[in-house]
Amino acid sequence: MTKNIMLGGVGGQGLVMTTAIISEAAFRAGFDVKTNDVIGLSQRGGKVWGSVRYGEEVFSPNIMPGQADVLLALEPLEGLRWSGMVKAGGVVLLNTSRIPPVPVIAEKAAYPEDIEARIAGEGEQAVEVRAVNALEEARGLGNVRVVNTVTIGMLSVVLEDIPVDCWHQAIEAIVPEKTLALNLKAFELGREIR
Amino acid sequence: MKIFMTGNEAIARGAYEAGVVYASAYPGTPSTEILENTAQYPEIISEWAPNEKVALEAVLGASIAGGRALAAMKHVGVNVAADPLMTISYTGVTGGLVLISADDPGCHSSQNEQDNRILAKFAKIACVEPSDSQESLDYMKAAYEISEKYDVAVMLRMTTRVCHSKSLVEQGERVEKEIIPYVKRPEKYIAAPAHAKKLHPVVEAKLVDLEKFSNETTLNRVEWFDKKIGIVTSGVAYQYAKEVFGENASYLKLGFTNPMPMDKIRDFAAQVEMLYVIEELEPFMEDQIKAAGISCVGKEKIPNIGELNPDIIAKALLGEERPLIEIDKDKIVGRPPTLCAGCPHRGFFYALKKKKNVMVTGDIGCYTLGASEPLNTTDTVIDMGASISMGHGAQRVLDKAGKGMKVVSVIGDSTFFHSGITSLIDVVYNQGNTVNVILDNRITGMTGHQENPGTGYTLSGKKVKEVEIDTLVRALGVELVINVNPLDLDAVTKALDAALAFEGPSVIITRWPCALKKFTPEDIKEFGKAQPVCYVVEEECRGCRLCNKTGCPAIVFDKAKKKSYIDPNACVGCEVCLQVCPFHAIKKAGE
What we know:
The complex is a heterodimer.
Chain A lengths: L2 E8 L4 H14 L3 E6 L9 E9 L12 E6 L2 H7 L3 E10 L6 H4 L9 H6 L7 E5 L1 H8 L5 H12 L5 H11 L5 H13 L2
Parallel strand pairs in A: 1-4, 4-5, 5-6
Antiparallel strand pairs in A: 1-3, 2-3
Helix pairs in contact in A: 1-7, 5-6, 5-8, 6-8
Chain B lengths: L1 E5 H11 L4 E4 L7 H6 L6 E4 L3 H13 L4 E6 H6 L1 H10 L5 E7 L13 H6 L3 E3 L4 H18 L3 E6 H5 L1 E5 L15 H4 L3 H24 L3 E4 L5 E6 L1 H10 L4 E5 L1 E3 L3 H9 L3 E5 L5 H8 L18 H9 L25 H10 L4 E4 L24 H16 L4 E7 H17 L5 E6 L28 H8 L3 E5 L4 H13 L4 E6 L9 H7 L6 E3 L18 E4 L4 E4 L9 H5 L5 E3 L3
Parallel strand pairs in B: 2-3, 2-4, 4-5, 5-7, 6-7, 10-11, 10-13, 14-15, 15-16, 16-18, 17-18
Antiparallel strand pairs in B: 1-8, 6-12, 9-11, 19-22, 20-21
């Protein structure tokens, strides 16, 4: 079965590197992998998304709506935006640290409240939401730049078919060398968040 | 061993393995990373050209001199390069020549979503279309063989999804190609009328040979499964079709799409009950299949607008609706792109917004965002360089209308080098009367920081003499040239006042690095090191929100407290908000 991981965030948050680490880990676990990133105009503070699909043989890099096993949202509003991609019973990993979009800054729209509950839904429509202020967690480790690695740690617990050493190898292959130790620490911290 | 690559990385690898010696490009999403990656191979001389026409011409020169060469550009870049392109089919090539056209279905980062396969057909050159990273590498190598065997340029048509998605790739080794010794061949390479007349029938004969090749090549392959449905498809649409139909359909997967393999298609169509054509954007294949009298279903069900995905195909052809969880769509707030915190363009646009009775013609780059909330300054954006030339034409008519409206044309440094220079010559030569602003942020910003003739560095990082915009525009004959720091609002206002009052063409050059740029030693010398951030002194803030109206994403208004707040993680200390605050409530950290 192909596993589908959807990612949502804001341009500049490091979604491309996050996607790269996830796909590298899946690749090292022996799967066929395809990914998507948004690059270009949208990186200027706009909404960005990515996808990782892995399995025996993957054709489309795109995930169909309602087919994502996991949504990794680097920002809560972006979590809400992409939550329709998740299948009922799927998992949504949410960094609760907000980045207000321009319409909110311009006071032309309100930042939505109760995002966790809105995403979680009810009954047959329910999805599992695991929320954490990853920015604060990263700050606690001494560098906010490892914020996404905290959420990758959370993701690694959900994706049981990728062994933990593949995640370590992927992080080592992709993050700058001088931040490796801190990134591994952030990853372990993320694994403890349930 | 397989490795994980984007389509663009795989193209660069393919070029390397094919023995390419020269590559030239102008950056443009989604093609930019191709040259950034060829530059990683010392065997390939890789260069940024000032525009796509120059890139293609340089590559043609390299080919005529006997080396394998590639030009890479986004789809609209091929429009700029169309002039040489339309004649390359006549001349043919010496060393293999591949033009990579990176189309952008869905306009992710473009002003339109044209389908450049049509340009390949129009230009009478061959076209190949990979569907993933492995094919991007393999088709590059195939394209060079085709190019040299048939004496034809090859368009390798990518799309955003193939350029930027990553998949597994088996790499090979580089095969060095000897440079073909140069021989003078005026009858081939001087496309004067007498030669062109003789070359045209040669082109037509080549196309006949290429169609024969198209019917025979394994680039166009059949995958037999269920024969009730047959699908003709190409590019990433093939992957989507496989995702949706799996083994419930048979496929004719076309990797070589110009000329089309009509015999192969006819044979395939005869063996299936129902023929679908699944392709992104225009009915390029479908029209030709229908014209050949083969019945098929395509664009009447599958949209020719926007990017395709498996969901669209499943809905269109199978009527499939997936069960979706319900979400509160009305609670979702949009998140349009915005100028970054500390972007030097913000100060300029903020000052420009105050000017009344002006028309602002804009251009392609990050500063296109000067058109959006809350700056709302720019009136037009069409294509590279158009700000200056459109502005000139507009000023002519506005002068006739006689209401004193003035045009301010706004263009970035890289875009000015691309095609703003000739536009400015037009203004000067014809004694126009526009204010031309060159926003020099010391880098090509939008596409992710590529060097350009004004930065003083090449693609390979070599330090070179920079083209000085000030010297250049004075040499063109512009008499009023004002250099200004765009973060100094008073200075920008004064510059605009002086230029608007001036009779004749004027140029304002704003010079400050992109807020995201990694400063060069020269930048540090000129602009200093990182600035301390700004903060709001809460007791002094009266909640007037003027700072918020600069549109800086680092500034948020706290409704409960009725105070503005600056996020210290986002602020870069540009001081635009500090100058805007009428109550001096914004200070620099450490003050």
